[in-house]
Design brief:
mainly alpha
């Protein structure tokens, strides 16, 4: 298989290392989510949910969206039961308002 002289930048390579490791292991497991779940010692639904998040991040990168670490962290907390959806929305709202206030010279 020939490579183009200047291969295009692959958004996949911009995923966090833990996501790249998951994708690598998925390939090594021949695409088997069951095998992937066994390697990570988690249930099938857990690995499916994790893979869905990786897919969502990758689609965002392909679309040119920058990762939002706060949003991703809050989503992880929701998944683990560490915060309610309502509380996470409130944190995001406060964060957005704080960002707007900073953009307006501190006036909200």
């Amino acid at each position: 298989m020939n490579q183009p002289p200047n291969p295009p930048q692959l958004p996949l390579l911009n995923l966090p290392p833990e996501d790249l490791a998951l994708v690598q292991e998925l390939v090594l497991q021949s695409g088997s989510l069951k095998g992937l779940a066994e390697v990570y010692s988690v249930s099938y639904p857990t690995i499916r949910a994790r893979l869905d998040k990786v897919i969502e991040r990758l689609r965002g990168l392909i679309a040119g969206r920058k990762p939002d670490p706060l949003r991703e962290y809050l989503a992880e907390l929701i998944d683990r039961g560490g915060i309610s959806v309502e509380s996470a929305r409130r944190v995001l709202d406060l964060s957005e308002r704080a960002g707007s206030a900073m953009d307006n010279g501190g006036v909200s």
